[in-house]
Amino acid sequence: MESGNQVGDYVVVGWTINTVPRLEARLPLNLLNRHILIVGATGTGKSYTASRIAWRVSLKGIPVIILDWHGEYGDLVAEGVRLNPFENPVEFLSTSDPRSDVEVISDVLGLTPPQEYLLWRIISEKGSKLESVESLARALEAYYDDASWVRETRLSLHRKLKILASNPYARLFNSNSRLPVDAAEPGKPVIVDLSLIRNVNVRRIYGTMLLARLVNMNYGLRKRYLILVEEAQNYLGRENPVGFLARMMGEIRKNNIGFCVITQSPSLIVDQVLVNTNTKIIHSVKSNMDLEVVSRSLFLDQETARILPYMDVGEALLFNPSLKKPVLIRVE
Ligand SMILES: Nc1ncnc2c1ncn2[C@@H]1O[C@H](COP(=O)(O)OP(=O)(O)OP(=O)(O)O)[C@@H](O)[C@H]1O
What we know:
Elements: E1 10-16, E2 24-28, E3 36-39, H1 46-59, E4 64-68, H2 73-76, E5 81-83, H3 98-109, H4 113-126, H5 133-142, H6 148-162, E6 190-193, H7 200-218, E7 225-229, H8 233-236, H9 243-248, E8 257-263, H10 271-276, E9 279-282, H11 288-298, H12 302-307, E10 315-319, E11 327-331
Helix pairs in contact: 3-4, 3-7, 4-6, 5-6
This protein binds adenosine-5'-triphosphate.
Adenosine-5'-triphosphate binds near residues 40 and 47.
Pfam family, one: DUF87
GO molecular function: 3'-5' DNA helicase activity; 5'-3' DNA helicase activity
Protein name: DUF853 family protein
């Protein structure tokens, strides 16, 4: 299916504004695995821009998966394949590799070191008897307390898992699941509608688990695809970033996955994202903190920085290493 391999192949994001004649604003496909950042205040055109990129990249035969936090991409990419997370469970425990599973679960749930250790003990003791989140929650409830820290840790870990093991959320996690990347076709990005998961914390956990499984599956295979992460502050926020995702942004050689990270507020996102995204598309930014972060990370001169709050919807500064300085474009 992959055809976007030719050197110099690219997709068009829009057109330059301040040049005569106007020129194509291009996104080279060989930069995809060096990641894209799209930022801008509410309503400035981030999702529209991301949807154009998703569709055009997918037309090149590169599979695209959209983690659709608000459920808006069904309208933006009418050709996309919409997936309901409840009908597409993600693997929570894969007893074939318990060590890396514990790391993933720990990252996803934000476990403390004692919680992670206890989880490891239980999984290595019970092994294949734990095929679901419910069975893990039950095993935790019944686990013997051989020290006082075990009891406290067990109870706090159980609290974290309880909602995942409850109805209807337990259906989101299953040991016999397939990854949605198989559903992608040329011109048809896969849209995982996360908004169907009402509990925001569970939504974040499902999204992160899905990302973890996609990334892990791709080690060794090195298949090329693009993942759009909407409302990225939920996964890569400064307060509680998911460790493996932040690390992934810097590990371009080990994996061939490109991330397109989308957020309203670059000041809420971990620095790794700003440092490790090669292509930046900056729509209008209004808050002083975000203006400062954008200006600093792109080394903007004062004149360019001054226009940031006043750009129209659909206008953006495009920056990548092949350009000497950011270019003002209109996304089309
Ligand atoms: N390049 C464009 N050309 C034409 N219309 C656009 C363009 N970009 C955005 N729009 C329109 O502007 C509106 C807001 O766009 P969009 O939803 O993409 O903004 P957003 O920054 O993602 O907002 P939010 O943060 O609230 O999700 C939509 O109606 C969209 O169709």
